[in-house]
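Dear Dr. H.,

I hope your travels went smoothly. While you were away I took the liberty of generating a structure for the chain from your last submission, since the lab meeting agenda had it listed for discussion. I wanted you to have the full record in hand beforehand rather than looking at slides cold. The sequence, exactly as received, is reproduced here:
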Amino acid sequence: MGEPAGIGPEIVVAAHEALGGRLGARPLRIVGDPALFPGIPDVLGTKAHVTRTPGKPDPKNNDAVMQSIEVAVRACLAGEAAAIVTAPINKDVLHRSGFAFPGHTEFLGALTGTTHPVMMLASEQLRVVPLTIHMPLADVPRSITAASIVEAAEITLAALARDFRIAKPRLAIAGLNPHPGEFGKEDAQVIAPAVEQLRAKGHDVRGPLPADTLFHEEARKTYDAALCMYHDQALIPIKTLSFWDGVNVTLGLPIVRTSPDHGTAFDIAGTGKADPRSMIAAIKMAASIADARRA
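The corresponding predicted structure, in token form, is as follows:
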């Protein structure tokens, strides 16, 4: 369901209709307040209800927003659903009623008992993983450690093999500073040692690599995913290449979870301008990953 005041309910309905309510042999079930989805059969309802005013979020709806995620996760953990595809939420609105997590990814980690869920943004053109996510840029250097790089890299490599069926996954690791090694100390003292640890374990890993030459067409052919040091270093290239069909995938969970790679878009909610392409791509990728895990 996502944030009721945003475009979540609209793209959920549009994707459901575009796909005819199923994907292959799998039926699609919408989770949320059934009152938001008149005419849609078999909505998996929440106990809490919402009042929707497009573009005007109301913290009173937060219980239903969180319940919709919890209901979907329980269905996956119980084997009643193959995957969960979440619509965008608004963290600022949720925080007004005590939401204790930075975002979706960490909330899903808590619900599934996962200590280090990892966010990947994926499309046919590129897969990227931001090591650090939502924080001021000034805080990034001291948040990067060799241990965190190794852990995120190994989770990413395992997901490439299991979820994307890549027999020998290759990972590129971006440097933090321009021209890694020429400026700052993080590339030589933190990132390079982490890369050496990964290579010593037998992983096909390269880095630290300059981010300004990492994402052109020829460079992308040399790796299966790129581990980036901060949010925009990862998201700018994939949103440039795949603005309408990029998918957010949470790695390291015991369940399959994807979502559209965009936010709640309060400014266009209720106007009929919401584009469901990223939601449709997220549904299709979730099904593909579920098939890979079952195989």
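Two observations you may find useful: The chain has a mean pLDDT of 95. DSSP finds ten helices and twelve strands in the chain.

With kind regards,
E. W.
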